[in-house]
Amino acid sequence: MDGTLYVAHAYGLDAEVQNATRITIGEGIAGRVAQSRKPMIINGRASDLPELAGAVSRRRVKSAIVYPLVSGSRLVGCSRSIV
User: Fold this and answer.
1) DSSP assignment letter at 50
2) How wide is the angle at C-alpha 53 spanned by C-alphas 4 and 59, nearest 5°?
3) pTM of the entire structure?
4) pLDDT of residue 62
5) Is 5 exposed, middle or buried (0-12, 13-18, 19+ CB in 10 A)?
6) In terms of C-beta density within 10 A (0-12 exposed, 13-18 middle, 19 or more buried), how is residue 52 classed?
């Protein structure tokens, strides 16, 4: 992995935007979860969580489950369900 996550699927996201979106490991919510390799539950404001201090989300997140996808010791992606 080159330190960048690519969007494989996103419900309701325009295909052009999906194909152009890149998430750097360690940046934003998904990037932080990918870096830590620890799942995260967000219930309320993401900015209230110390582990997400300074992380910027592209959209307002009220609640989410975000988890890393790992095969053995290799990070293969990150998945999230957002409300």
Assistant:
1) G
2) 65
3) 0.78
4) 74
5) buried
6) buried
